[in-house]
Amino acid sequence: xxxxxxxxxxxxxxxxxxxxxxxxxxxxxxxxxxxxxxxxxxxxxxxxxxxxxxxxxxxxxxxxxxxxxxxxxxxxxxxxxxxxxxxxxxxxxxxxxxxxxxxxxxxxxxxxxxxxxxxxxxxxxxxxxxxxxxxxxxxxxxxxxxxxxxxxxxxxxxxxxxxxxxxxxxxxxxxxxxxxxxxxxxxxxxxxxxxxxxxxxxxxxxxxxxxxxxxxxxxxxxxxxxxxxxxxxxxxxxxxxxxxxxxxxxxxxxxxxxxxxxxxxxxxxxxxxxxxxxxxxxxxxxxxxxxxxxxxxxxxxxxxxxxxxxxxxxxxxxxxxxxxxxxxxxxxxxxxxxxxxxxxxxxxxxxxxxxxxxxxxxxxxxxxxxxxxxxxxxxxxxxxxxxxxxxxxxxxxxxxxxxxxxxxxxxxxx
Length: 414
Hints:
By secondary structure, this protein is of the alpha/beta class. Helices cover about 45% and strands about 20% of the residues.
């Protein structure tokens, strides 16, 4: 029997226990985790240092290093995040709706845990803590499989979490796959009967591999090739501020903008200021002929650029003749994550929001708001770009399923 099967069996047993755990008990477990994170901060930083040194030695790009880094502020943020999850309403047992049918049966629809959730992810150690907290609050056992680049950090975090849960006899609620090989990842993807749902987080390559190869159900959290369209009626100064925020505030995030579309009627007025502002903030611009004519530092944008989630200080800019053309470009290249229109036209805003197919569509706001905390959900497990079970930021309710409870008084079907 493989180590992974043993972990899966432990998780399956634990899932039954977690499903009936009271809300106060789950909240106490979360508070214990937050305390343990703060107490073991030195240990966590030391283990993370090993990952950073290895990554730097292997020439890992700066955006990846930024995702990998854990410092004291990051650990404190993790602890606060866990505490916030403890304060959120528990969706388990919530009665979504109820009614009485013609036979007099009292039917209620109630939320229940999914069971055992497998999570495959890359780079970000904070995902380890977020996933553990969210799954625990919703009564789900979780098996985590992080990337090899963060193995020391993830092992340390799970060790701290399990230490906090051990006095409560819940240590197997959160487990880490120790082997980061592709073979073990593929084994995890096919653990039907043990894993109830698999959630991949990371690069497009990782997500598509899981979607194509997994035999267990998958919730696809998508990459973010996000667009902002600046309409001819937009407030130009506001547009520059929004684009700057969406690109620069955290370029490595999946909700950062990667392509800006500009209506041709305002291109001559806004492009010099937009390009100048972004370049002053270290952004490399790749544009079409109109954008290249603004400044010699602008590189030619290729089809590949329009397809790419840069996750870096790189931005593609294209001039379009209409809102219809902007929507067509988005339809061709979007990953259906987050799309925005900047406009003072009610008609154009309504056309855009109705016709653009994405998990989140914005009018006059930065795409950087696609986030569980910003939406008021608390921590999130990821941003789902598919349409079944969950879409958009996935908070606590999205980690539950439905059970129908039917109460009768001896009714028989005729």
